Amino acid sequence: MLLKVSEVAKRLNLSASKVYQLIERNRLPHYRLDGAIRVSEEQLADYLERAKQERAEPRPRESRPARPRPRLKHVRL
After folding, report:
1. What does 38-77 look like in DSSP terms, one character per residue?
2. What CATH number does the domain containing 19 carry?
3. Which residues contact 8 (CB under 8 A, 6 or more apart)?
4. What is the structure's pLDDT at 58?
5. Domain count of the chain?
6. Could you tell me if residue 26 is left (phi over 0), alpha (psi between -120 and 50 degrees) or otherwise beta?
7. Chain-centre distance of CA 31, in angstroms?
8. CA distance linking residue 31 with residue 8, whole number of Å
9. Is residue 74 scored above 90 in pLDDT?
10. pLDDT tens across 27-54, in order?
11. What does pTM read for this prediction?
12. Distances (CA, A) of 54 to 19, 22, 68
């Protein structure tokens, strides 16, 4: 069965615009049929499985260069 974007959004508890973002970023596989976007049940299940695996894997922390601390001037009152 092919699902509309609104149906996918409802199943994922997301907004339709968020589903469009996932599609734009090629994170959610989909079909385009005469200009309409459709997602199959299998594609949705694959996306959910990948998302679950990504959440289980710890993300490497990005190392940022240390910012120099601003020097504070003492003010006499």
Report:
1. EEEHHHHHHHHHHHHHHHHSPPPPPP-PPPPPPPPPP---
2. 1.10.1660.10
3. 19, 28, 39, 44
4. 74
5. 1
6. left
7. 19
8. 13
9. no
10. 999 999 999 999 999 999 999 999 998 8
11. 0.69
12. 18, 15, 34
